[in-house]
Amino acid sequence: MNNKEFEDLFYKVPEGVDYADLLEDVDLEDVPEETIQKLTSLLSSDDEFLRYKSSRLLTIWGIREGFDVLTQMFSQGQLEWMISHRLYGYDDTNRIILDALINYWANQSDRGNGDQARKDIFPYVCQIIEQAGNSYYDISYFYYLVEGNGFSEYIPYLKHFLATILDKSEDNYWRIHDTLKLFLKVDPDYVTQLLKEKQKSLEDFGIEVKGERN
């Protein structure tokens, strides 16, 4: 395949699809079978970037073969620095992987396999949360699963994450802000305890205390 063919394979939205601007946002039933076959064939490519690109798309659509390759590459450290943040230059790959894993669960859930997919993504999401404490990528868009879908299995990992970044608060204002807002909903007592221990306040991170204003 030449560069143009790879570009079309990874990015071109199928003709007739008017609800998505990105291929990854296209529903699986609207993705041509030929596209799935070509992406699947790249899972065994010698080129790590092609394996990453193809496995990510297949994972997003809830396809197990893609999930297995993406998570294997992640576990073996082959995806580090695959994607850098375009403004600040830090390794943003884990945020992209987290998004793919969430979509994998969502699409599997739509097919009635949500419970198994929830178990499948767990160890990898935990690793991403753990590694986030020593990096700068955002994980907050995943919080709706904890707050709204009852994914309480991640709470211990998120508590450790919050405690870690509070020790580096000057570099983590918005990540602390977002994570505090989550815990104010799911475990407010923990917020009180942790902020007292770290000698911080909600106001330090732009969160207004209820009842402070009319």
Topology record:
Layout: H1 3-11, H2 33-41, H3 48-60, H4 64-75, H5 93-110, H6 114-132, H7 143-148, H8 155-166, H9 173-186, H10 188-198
Characterize this entry briefly:
By secondary structure, the chain is mostly helical.
Essential attributes:
214 residues, 10 helices
CA radius of gyration: 19 Å
The percent range for strand residues is under 5%
Structural class by sheet pairing and helices: mainly alpha
Number of helical stretches of at least 4 residues = 10
Query: Which stretches are poorly predicted, pLDDT < 50 over at least 5 residues?
Result: none
Largest sheet entry: none
Mean of pLDDT:
95
Structural shape: elongated
What's the SSE pattern?
A: HHHHHHHHHH
Helix fraction by DSSP (H/I, runs of at least 4): 55-70%
**Between the first and last Cα atoms, what is the distance in angstroms?**
64 Å
Q: How many extended strands?
A: 0
3D structure, described in words:
The termini are far apart. It contains ten helices and no strands. It has 214 residues and is mainly α. It has helices at residues 3-11, 33-41, 48-60, 64-75, 93-110, 114-132, 143-148, 155-166, 173-186, 188-198.
